[in-house]
Specification:
Elements lengths: L2 H15 L1 E2 L2 E2 L10 E4 L2 E4 L11 H17 L4 H12 L6 E2 L3 E3 L2 E7 L7 E6 L13 E5 H4 L7 E7 L5 E7 L7 E6 L5 E6 L2 E6 L5 E7 L6 E8 L6 E5 L6 E6 L5 E7 L4 E7 L8 E2 L9 E6 L2 E6 L7 E6 L9 E4 L6 E7 L3 E8 L2 E8 L4 E4 L8 E4 L9 E7 L6 E6 L5 E6 L11 E9 L5 E9 L10 E5 L16 H4 L4 E5 L9 H5 L7 H16 L8 E6 L1 H12 L6 E5 L5 H5 L11 H4 L5 H8 L14 E7 L8 H11 L8 E6 L11 H18 L5
Parallel strand pairs: 36-37, 36-38, 38-39, 39-40, 40-41
Antiparallel strand pairs: 1-2, 3-4, 5-7, 6-7, 7-8, 8-9, 10-11, 11-12, 12-13, 14-15, 15-16, 16-17, 18-19, 19-20, 20-21, 22-23, 23-24, 24-25, 26-27, 27-28, 28-29, 30-31, 31-32, 32-33, 34-35, 35-37
Helix pairs in contact: 1-2, 3-13
Length: 707
């Protein structure tokens, strides 16, 4: 090992471990001139070298940051362990999911105490089609066995063939979302593979031996190639490659299993190709050629394609078309466009149709009786809640499964009879330790933004709270990609509420809570709305005496980490502490580098910085580029070395640069997983909960809660 590196490592370890009068001394990343030319301007980025993942000096620096964080949080260990045990004590560690029928079998997952991962199982259905708990259990996949000797395991695709004999699944063992495809003979238990590398989606043909799958580009990770494989012999055959770098592809199958669907999508334009699943050697046909700005997707039922389209409908409408004549002139409208209702999805059954919608930030389902030609809306009991499809694979089903929950109601699985609307509770996630939802309150607030728009806030707190500005408040936000943040239940969150913390989700622009326009108003040249909405929501909560700036902590991850970086640059005085998880903070360097995963296809979300107007706008909010010599809140930054969605060097560079600028003595910590881990952190449930306990304890400590 070079002497120069040994000296550097020793120096970094010494810096991170030694105590000064003020405590541990943070490591200092060296600065190396790196000049880029951006629209004629020479820009120096002296921390650019931290991108060199194989450079031992980078490893040494990251290890030193971890050592510094460990030293700075040494005193939190007892509380962290106690909180972990508290959070763990609410979980039913040995549990069983609600069995779901697919053909001749019921499928479910179960967990066992002490094991990190679920075990995937099935039982044969009884003669009358009912679930038979006494039927022999077949273990399809024990993820704990697969994970032996590994520090990370993510299960991607999981699909059983139509004849019930073969399981296809994909796994990632690094955290880089690089999935390998395997097949398992369910009669013999024999495993084959890997059959392919970098697989992102897959689907069976009706004959149960032809497999279709999509792979990603080795550099950009863009899903761009479609393949066919005959499992009875032969090699994978490439059928199609998407050349346009703005588009990703994904493979699925219609509910009635009659068609394979190849989805080709950019941010603002979608195209679908289809193939009868019983004709695997045929060619995929284009349903409707891509047209700039037109987004549509397909389902099939009874010889009709059901088309969810935004043509003539900002928030989508639903039309049908005969399979033989699917052109727009043959469309029949079934669900008209509505300016205040977003049509999010369609699920057809033999005798019914379920549409999933969102209105005023709340999920809802409506059921269409195809025989009676009538609609029925599914009723929910609370004013603030979340509801999702619960998985109903059988096309002939007469009950629709859904997952209902709220910030005070644990996840609850219901079967909703589609003819009557009657709901039957099958399982509610058990919260151990005597949880009583009557002790907590959830409500919806509307915060005025500076341009007059009202921003929805989902709030939960323990009953008896005094609104005098003294309560600690935890504010969470995301606001990107048209992804809405649902007000779901979280048992670890009870550890906050029971200590008097108010928890709030700010449904800021950039998501889809109030429809497609809500997304449009928080992207591209309107992206600043995302950040100012969050700031305005925080100021509203202070003004209404829910909290005070010295009691306000904030959190966001990924694009939500960009949000954290932007708002702390803009209003560092408004927040006491910040947790930025896997934060997308080095916007300009990333979006100017077309070789990085996700960059080019995301230009339609963020803007193309090679265009001067977009460049100037993006640069004005990019957290890394706008760090300033000023006081900042306490900041915890977490990431993973193998994250492929936000590269580790973005948070590492951010912390290194901020150390040279911040004028305060508030903690600035970087915690990076050097072992295999992904964008979501650890893969095992216990490991993930330990991370959650650490982050929660750190945040609580910033507002004076130490036990």
């Amino acid at each position: 090992m070079p002497t120069r590196f040994l000296c550097l490592l020793a120096a970094l370890v010494s810096l991170s471990g030694n105590l000064s009068a003020q405590g541990p001394v943070p490591p200092v990343a060296k600065q190396v001139a790196h000049i880029s030319v951006w629209h004629g301007e020479k820009v120096n980025d002296p921390w650019f070298w931290l991108r060199e993942k194989s450079n031992p000096e980078v490893t040494a620096y990251l290890n030193a940051e971890n050592a510094y964080t460990a030293a700075m949080t040494e005193g939190l260990k007892p509380f962290t362990e106690a909180l972990y045990q508290e959070m763990l004590g609410r979980l039913k560690q040995t549990d069983l999911s609600v069995p779901t029928r697919r053909g001749a079998f019921y499928y479910y997952a179960r967990t066992e105490e002490g094991k990190q991962y679920p075990i995937q199982c099935r039982r044969r259905a009884a003669k009358d089609g009912a679930y038979d708990g006494q039927a022999p259990e077949a273990v399809l996949l024990d993820q704990n066995e697969l994970a032996k000797g590994l520090k990370f395991l993510s299960l991607g695709g999981f699909s059983v063939s139509d004849d019930d004999r073969t399981l296809l699944f994909t796994t990632d063992v690094t955290g880089y979302r690089q999935y390998r495809l395997f097949a398992k003979d369910l009669a013999t238990g024999n495993l084959s593979g890997p059959l392919a590398e970098r697989v992102t989606s897959m689907a069976w043909s009706a004959d149960s031996h032809h497999l279709f799958f999509v792979t990603e580009d080795a550099v950009t990770k863009r899903s761009n190639q479609l393949w066919r494989l005959d499992l009875q012999g032969g090699s994978p055959e490439r059928l199609f490659e998407e050349k346009d770098e703005l588009y990703q592809m994904d493979l699925s199958r219609t509910k009635d299993r009659k068609y394979l669907l190849l989805h080709l999508q950019s941010t603002d334009t979608w195209e679908t190709r289809y193939l009868p699943s019983d004709a695997p050697l045929g060619a995929f046909q284009v349903f409707l050629a891509r047209e700039k700005g037109h987004k549509y997707d397909l389902e099939h039922r009874g010889g009709l394609f059901y088309i969810r389209t935004n043509r003539g409908a900002k928030n989508f409408r639903l039309v049908t078309a005969p399979v033989a004549t699917p052109a727009p002139e043959h469309w029949t409208e079934l669900v008209p466009p509505r300016p205040d209702v977003l049509l999010e999805g369609v699920e057809p059954f033999r005798d019914f149709l379920v549409v999933r919608e969102k209105s005023r930030g709340l999920d809802r389902f409506r059921i269409y009786d195809a025989g009676a030609k009538t609609w029925r809306e599914v009723a929910f009991p609370e004013s603030v809640y979340a509801a999702f499809p619960g998985g109903t694979p059988e096309f002939t089903a007469t009950a629709f499964r859904l997952n209902y929950q709220s910030m005070v109601t644990p996840a609850s699985i219901y079967d909703c009879d589609m003819a009557s609307g009657r709901q039957t509770l099958l399982k509610q996630t058990e919260v151990l330790g005597g949880y009583d939802r009557a002790h907590y309150v959830t409500e919806r607030l509307w915060a005025p933004a500076r341009d007059g728009v009202k921003v929805p806030l989902s709030v939960v707190y323990k009953k008896g709270l005094k609104r005098d500005g003294r309560a600690p408040l935890f504010l969470y936000g995301y606001g990107s990609y048209g992804i809405g943040m649902a007000p779901t239940f979280s048992s670890p969150r009870l550890s906050l509420l029971d200590r008097g913390v108010v928890y709030v989700i700010a449904h800021i622009r950039g998501g889809n809570e109030l429809g497609e326009g809500w997304h449009d108003d928080g992207m591209l040249m309107k992206k600043m709305n995302t950040f100012t909405d969050f700031i305005d929501a925080a100021e509203f909560l202070v003004q209404e005496k829910w909290t005070a700036p010295e009691r306000l902590v904030i959190e966001g991850g990924s694009a939500g980490g960009l949000l954290m970086g932007a708002v702390t640059n803009l209003r560092p005085d408004l927040f006491k502490a910040v947790h930025a998880a896997v934060p997308f903070v080095d916007v300009m360097n990333t979006e100017l580098d077309a070789t990085l995963p996700g960059t080019v296809e995301e230009w339609l979300e963020w803007g193309n910085p090679h265009e001067k107007a977009a460049f100037d706008y993006m640069r004005a909010y990019s957290p890394y580029d706008n760090l300033a010599k000023q006081a900042y809140p306490a900041i915890l930054v977490t990431t993973s070395l193998n994250d492929s969605q936000v590269m580790y060097w973005e948070p590492a560079k951010y912390v290194a640069k901020l150390r040279t600028l911040k004028t305060d003595r508030n903690p600035l910590l970087l915690k990076i997983k050097m072992d295999p881990a992904g964008h979501g952190g650890a893969s095992g449930r216990y490991d993930a909960l330990k991370d959650k306990a650490f982050e929660t304890v750190w945040m609580l400590g910033q507002v004076g809660i130490t036990k």
